[in-house]
Hints:
By secondary structure, the chain is mainly α. The chain is built from four helices and three strands. This is Maternal effect embryo arrest 60. It comes from Centaurea solstitialis (yellow star-thistle).
Amino acid sequence: xxxxxxxxxxxxFSTTIHITALDGIVNVNSLFTLAxxxxxxxxxxxxxxxxxxxxxxxxxxxxxxxxxxFHVYSFSSFLFSSLVALSLKQAIRIAKTSCDxxxxxxxxxxxxHVNRNALRVGYLIxxxxxxxxxxxxxxxxxxxxxxxxxxxxxxxxHTYGAVVPLLIFVPLGLLIYVFFVLFAFSR
Length: 187
């Protein structure tokens, strides 16, 4: 990645902000991965975990199976995203061996030749993994709500009260995240 980025110009840009952004991706993915592991440690078929009193509204085995599947999909997506981000970070650090260190006032920063196109594609791939992980985690939480509060088919106001905000705010947050990732990609 120590080739200059596209267009043949020898443009240089600070890599410190890129390393910080990649650290942020890895940290957020780590928090979500912790949530996935906590979810996997929970035994969904234990009747003491459910608040459902109507036997017709008890979640079936397929919902519990989907819960586990979505947790595993979420974990694999977050792990993929983190590994891509860590790989980019390592590539930037390797490229820093040929960096110029500049001092501006009280700040010291490194300027390196980094392939911008490769960096952008790596960011997009890492962001796509995070978005998929969030989507799968959201679907797992919908299944948790159905197991704890009753299935959506029963029309329980408690289940809908838990699921509707989840289905509004998470996609909205992901939409904002994707917008800013694409905005950063175009710069």
